[in-house]
Design brief:
This protein is of the alpha/beta class. 37% of the residues lie in helices and 23% in strands. It has one domain (49-269): Uracil-DNA Glycosylase, subunit E (3-Layer(aba) Sandwich). The protein has ten helices and ten strands. The radius of gyration is 19 Å and the shape is globular.
């Protein structure tokens, strides 16, 4: 990566500025192995359809009234984006496709769940609740060039490896508190953040991690992609249960007149920050 391009990425102060630089990045080729085959990926954001994402409604995001929830996904697809971004499309149309209905439902649940009580599942949010929930989130796809409805994980990882500095910068500019990884946690952890893979001593059976990224502690949840085929009810309570357990870990409690924190073990990640 040319030093002047890297400096511009580091100095970018807005998502629009970052995406303009990213779209004009020099083409690169990357090779990965699938089984016994060696597959070459030609990464050319200028030639391919570059689908920017980011914060759906910056006014809501920056108001301080709602939890800042970032969904890290794999890729978007389609060729008719013109000058729209995925974020502006979500803000304008509040799509009701099954995946986005699930994202809205998960967001509504997290916004209304605390350490003491999980928000009750709603099979159908009202139109207003659906729209408001989508406008409270941010989206970050690891692969910005248009893809397919069925993702190639090797290709996603190749894009994430080549664009890891840009992805980290986007993450920093979005500045989330809660990060829902939709089948992307492994790539985000090892390829983008460049931390060791999880093992028996660092993995969490409850699928949540407090990690210091971009000078701030964030809650990462390693979860299924919202387009998975499990039932909505199971998806919802699975995610809410994980989120509630994370809150309980951080919730101060009083024991013998002294305040303590239940279950938080920062030493688990001390070598990963």
């Amino acid at each position: 990566m040319p030093a002047d391009y890297q400096k511009k990425i580091e100095d970018a102060s807005t998502l629009d500025e970052l995406f303009t630089l990213w779209r004009g990045k020099a083409p690169e080729s990357f090779e990965y192995t699938y089984g016994k085959r060696s597959i070459q990926v030609n990464i050319d954001h200028g030639k391919n359809v570059f689908i920017a994402d980011g914060i759906v409604n910056p006014e809501v995001w920056n108001s301080g009234d709602k939890k800042r929830i970032l969904f890290i996904m794999k890729e978007a697809y389609g060729s008719d984006w013109d000058n729209r971004t995925l974020a502006s499309w979500l803000r304008m149309y509040h799509p009701t496709l099954p995946m986005w209905r699930r994202v809205a439902r998960w967001t509504y649940g997290i916004q209304h769940t605390d350490a003491n009580e999980i928000a009750r599942y709603k099979a159908n949010l009202t139109d207003e609740q659906h729209a408001e929930s989508l406008e409270q989130i941010a989206i970050l796809n690891l692969k910005k060039s248009n893809g397919d409805s069925a993702s190639d994980y090797g290709e996603i990882d190749a894009y994430a490896r080549e664009d890891h500095l840009e992805i980290l910068k986007e993450f920093s500019l979005i500045d989330p508190d809660i990060v829902i990884c939709g089948s992307t946690f492994g790539t985000m952890l090892t390829t983008v953040l460049q931390k060791p893979p999880l093992n028996d001593s660092t993995g969490n059976d409850n699928w949540y991690y407090f990690m210091n990224v971009a000078r701030k502690e964030r809650l990462f949840i390693d979860y299924y992609h919202p387009a998975n085929h499990w039932s909505d009810l199971m998806n919802y309570y699975g995610l809410m249960g994980i989120y509630q357990q994370a809150l309980k870990e951080k919730q101060p409690v009083v024991r013998n007149g002294r305040q303590a924190t239940v279950g938080y073990q920062p030493n688990v990640w001390k070598n990963r920050e």
